[in-house]
Amino acid sequence: MRTFVHESSPGRVVFGADVVDRVGDEVRRLGGNRPLVVSGPSRRSVDRVRRGLDPLAVGEFAGAAMHAPVEVTEQALTELRRHRADCVVSIGGGSATGLSKALAARTDLPQVVIPTTYSGSEVTSVLGETSQGRKTTRSSPMLLPETVLYDVNLTLGLPVAASVTSAVNAMAHAVEALYSPQANGLVDAVALAAIRMIGPGLSGIRVDPRDTECRAALLEAAWLAGMTLASAGMGLHHKLCHVLGGSFGLAHAPTHTVVLPHVLAYNSPAIGRTTARIADALGVGDAAVGLAHTIRDLGGPVSLRALGLREADLPEVARRAVAAPYANPRPVEQAPLEALLRIAWEGGDPRTP
Ligand code: NAD
């Protein structure tokens, strides 16, 4: 028998084509008049957001960076106070969303988030921040964005390579939710639906990156997967990715893409039935090997070496994951974890260490 505590995210979700143009209405709905728009340095789609916010008084900060460095948050906070902002609007991937949440954590201002990748961060009340080479995670209802605008047209230009890694990042949320201690019938159904949508969506955009139906399927899967992360939780996979990203500087989504099949192999002795359900949703025989081959066939990254990790760092990565593990179905131990990391570093097929 499973026992669990379930909480649903209360946020408002607006999904469709060109819904970004409704951003002004959504800000006003939250009582905002002076939004601060946060984005990454590319400022992709920021002018479109500004047009949607007209005639509100708009401030801007375009310095969002991966893993939410606290120094960047401090700079954005200065801009937020200078502008006397009463609302935060973020446009971009998980990095822009993370900055928005970091600002909400310090000000409790309402947030309208417009995601342009598949990170799922916009529907979780979790924030990973980095300071002095360490990533720490905090969770609070205050962090949860009030409104999310999913505009499929803003994702049409996400390069296929980045789409593959970002969608596997979403898949990782769903996979870990399935074996989380908080898993339940609702989480299972949503997670499996997300996993089922991702493979065909990615195959479709490989043929035509601007295929709106496939892009919509991926964006909806990202939302569903984010919801499972929000209500279930994270295991060994997310822990390893947090260590690799926060302490060793590896890029977030590509790291998820390399690590996920290997963690599935690591955990498989403890989660036999769940592995079979994942394999079924992916349409493969063996979940770990099938996922690894799917990623390779889609042109995704397959080795930690290629992402820039040094071989000498493998024992330290394992030590940090063992020192403060997240709940995981199989005990997290140094020797098998180092073995897992070595295979992932070399880019070999996943096998249970
Ligand atoms: P990102 O936001 O850094 O974006 C990656 C790159 O893609 C950037 O160069 C960005 O400019 C570009 N990009 C974004 N959207 C684009 C588009 N539509 N077209 C073209 N280029 C586009 O990366 P990410 O993987 O989305 O997010 C990673 C961050 O999110 C990390 O800091 C991670 O910790 C965080 N995250 C948090 C959670 C959570 O629940 N707290 C969940 C997932 C990820």
What do you see in this structure?
Its EC number is 1.3.1.32. Residues 10-151 form the Alcohol dehydrogenase iron-type/glycerol dehydrogenase GldA domain. Keywords: NAD, Oxidoreductase. It comes from Actinoalloteichus hymeniacidonis. The protein is of the alpha/beta class and 353 residues long. 50% of the residues lie in helices and 11% in strands. The chain contains 13 helices and eight strands. The strands form two sheets. The protein has a six-stranded parallel beta sheet with strand order 1-8-5-4-2-3, sandwiched between helices. A two-stranded antiparallel ribbon has the order 6-7. The chain is globular, with a radius of gyration of 19 Å. The structure holds nicotinamide-adenine-dinucleotide. Residues 40, 42, 44, 66-68, 92-96, 98, 116-117, 119-121, 124, 126-128, 154-155, 157-158, 162, 166, 169, 229, 252-253 line the site of nicotinamide-adenine-dinucleotide.
**What small ligands are held by the chains?**
nicotinamide-adenine-dinucleotide
- Report the major sheet: 6 strands, parallel
**Rg for CA atoms:** 19 Å
Can you count the helices? Answer: 13
Structural class: alpha/beta
Helix content: 40-55%
**Main sheet: which strands, in order across?**
1-8-5-4-2-3
Shape: globular
Average pLDDT taken over every residue:
96
- Total count of strands: 8
Which residues form runs of ≥5 with pLDDT under 50? none
What is the CA–CA distance across the termini?
A: 28 Å
- SSE string, helices as H and strands as E: EHEHEHEHEEEEHHHHHHHHH
Percent strand: 5-15%
